[in-house]
Design a protein that fits this description.
The complex is a heterodimer of chains A (219) and B (312).
Chain A: H1 3-26, H2 30-55, H3 58-86, H4 98-115, H5 117-122, H6 131-147, H7 151-173, H8 178-206
Helix pairs in contact in A: 1-2, 1-6, 1-7, 2-3, 2-7, 3-8, 4-6, 6-7, 7-8
Chain B: H1 2-31, H2 41-51, H3 62-80, H4 97-116, H5 121-152, H6 157-166, H7 174-190, H8 209-212, H9 218-243, H10 254-281, H11 290-310
Helix pairs in contact in B: 1-2, 1-9, 1-10, 2-9, 3-4, 3-9, 4-5, 5-6, 5-7, 5-11, 7-9, 7-11, 9-10
Classes of the chains: A mainly alpha (219), B mainly alpha (312).
């Protein structure tokens, strides 16, 4: 595969990944959140295969397979189950309204371009075009975590942020060693399970997963 | 020769516009299991409306009579500036994308004024809604095309087409794709298509375009409708020729021009099919969610400009 085409494809799929991140900010229903996360992870695993193919690194195929199994199959199923159990359908009113948070997301991506400028300038990899987009995705994920009220949407925001970090690692270094990648996957899974337990407890105590209510002592 | 071509392309756009709308309506009807009027029905509608008598409210001022001509004229003027069939055109020197955007906005502005003029409740509602939509949609159009202009190094629509033809790889760059998505959403909003406005009914409280033209009849209505259909054709041509410029003639040879006409009709029909499918699949948005949809497209356009500026 020639380098120019590879660079083009990498930038393209990084943009698609970022777009799915921004989709979160525009949708309200939790089902849409989970779907967006799933599609984003799917594109990411394709990107891993692409990078593995270009850099002739079979380890990346393995990473892609694990990534696919964890983030496209296992986590969405658990999220669905969680959603069914706590019976939340919509993120009714986030702290910041949707139009503003979309524009904020645009500005955050601009900021990401500004911060990654030195990084892009010193890098000679063909994947450098996607670095600002990966950084932008991390910011957007953080924005979702900070501005959304439901514990479940915050979890999806966290997972999206994690996807951003994975994307940054893949683009910046053609993927970290497999053993570290495995550790990260395990951490994500553990973190998710812990958060799941938290959500059940919050739901059990407050009969709602609106984190707003956590700031009140009595209810 | 170039000037003849300019006149010819305007005539072609005027002739194709009703057919395009008819095609979308017919396809939509088919997709919804209705038989539907044939695609050439809008031509009959136009002829009939031009023959009908004009009924006007006693409260209407000169503005009400003047607006249809201005709306029609400003929309036709846009077609002169567009690379419809061939790309280096003599009128390219007169106006670039900013002129196109503001000519379109001029038509929208007078349509809203005309909606307010007779003082009916529906007209006022429609006008205020149209302005809400236009206020976010117009900068998005400019921004989305700016994304392309940055790549081509010129805000001239014809230049953008020739530059893209010279370097076809740019078509799958993220800037282009984001700008396409942004412009597609704006097309649906500006031409009153489904997630924003329902073009098929006069009976909805949430209508936008239909509410403004409710008081018009006869030849005035014909002109306004024709201008609206022409606007749809303009937006489709922008989407087709700026983003996928293949088929646009770069010389004035008759063979190339014939190919260009064929390619244009095909591209418009393909976009018509896409819009018909979209309109069948989505439900109308609540009015308060429309600005959210438009800010999605604004952010897409902003990202398009950023990526084509920084990845140059």
């Amino acid at each position: 595969m020639n380098t120019a085409l590879f660079a083009q494809l990498v930038t393209l799929s990084s943009s698609v990944v970022l777009l799915f991140g921004i989709t979160l900010l525009w949708r309200r229903s939790l089902t849409a959140y989970i779907d967006a996360f799933r599609w984003q992870s799917l594109v990411l695993s394709v990107l891993f295969v692409l990078i593995g193919y270009y850099s002739n690194d079979p380890e990346l195929y393995l990473v892609a397979v694990f990534f696919f199994a964890l983030k496209v199959i296992v986590l969405p199923i658990y999220l669905r189950r969680l959603q069914a159990r706590v019976k939340v359908v919509n993120e009714i009113e986030p702290y910041i309204n949707i139009a503003t948070s979309l524009i904020l997301a645009g500005l955050l991506v601009l900021l990401a371009y500004a911060v990654t400028r030195p990084l892009v300038a010193v890098s000679t990899l063909p994947t450098r075009g996607g670095l600002p987009l990966a950084m932008g995705l991390i910011f957007v994920g953080l924005l979702v975590v900070v501005t959304r009220k439901k514990a479940l949407t915050q979890i999806v925001g966290f997972l999206v942020m994690e996807n951003g970090i994975a994307l940054l690692a893949a683009l910046g270094t053609y993927g970290v060693p497999f053993i570290i990648e495995l550790g990260v996957f395990l951490d994500v899974l553990m973190g998710f399970l812990v958060m799941q337990v938290f959500v059940y407890h919050i739901y059990g105590t407050f009969e709602s997963i609106d984190v707003n209510q956590l700031s009140e002592l009595k209810h | 020769m170039g000037y003849v071509l300019e006149i010819a392309q305007v005539a072609l756009a005027l002739a194709l516009a009703p057919g395009l709308v008819g095609l979308i309506r017919w396809l939509k009807a088919r997709l919804q299991n209705r038989r539907g009027a044939p695609p050439w029905q809008p031509y009959f509608e136009l002829t009939k409306l031009f023959q009908k008598e004009v009924v006007m409210s006693n409260n209407a001022s000169w503005l009400f009579r003047f607006a249809p001509y201005l709306i029609f004229a400003s929309t036709v003027a846009v077609v002169f500036l567009m690379p419809l069939l061939a790309s280096p055109l003599p009128f390219d020197a007169i106006g670039d994308l900013l002129v196109v955007v503001y000519l379109l906005l001029l038509g929208t502005f007078f349509l809203a004024l005309a909606g307010l003029d007779p003082g009916t409740a529906f007209g006022g509602m429609g006008a205020s809604r149209e302005m809400t939509v236009a206020a976010i949609a117009e900068p998005t159009i400019a921004l989305a095309i700016f994304g392309l202009a940055l790549g081509a190094g010129s805000t001239n629509l014809g230049r953008i087409v020739t530059e893209t033809l010279a370097d076809p790889g740019v078509v799958i760059s993220p800037g282009h794709l984001l700008a396409f998505a942004a412009l597609f959403i704006v097309t649906l909003a500006e031409t009153g298509r489904l997630p924003v406005d329902n073009p098929a009914t006069h009976l909805e409280l949430t209508m936008i375009h239909e509410a403004m033209i409710l008081e018009y009849s006869g030849r005035y209505l014909a002109l306004i409708e024709w201008a609206a259909w022409l606007k749809l054709t303009i937006f489709f041509t922008l989407l087709a020729n700026l983003f996928l410029p293949w088929g646009v003639a770069t010389t004035l040879a008759p063979g190339d021009l014939l190919i260009a006409i064929g390619a244009l009709v095909l591209k418009l029909a393909a976009l018509g099919v896409v819009v018909a499918i979209v309109e069948t699949r989505v439900a109308k948005l609540r009015l308060f969610r429309v600005p959210e949809l438009l800010s999605v497209s604004f952010v897409l356009a902003l990202l398009a400009v950023t990526s084509s500026f920084l990845l140059k």
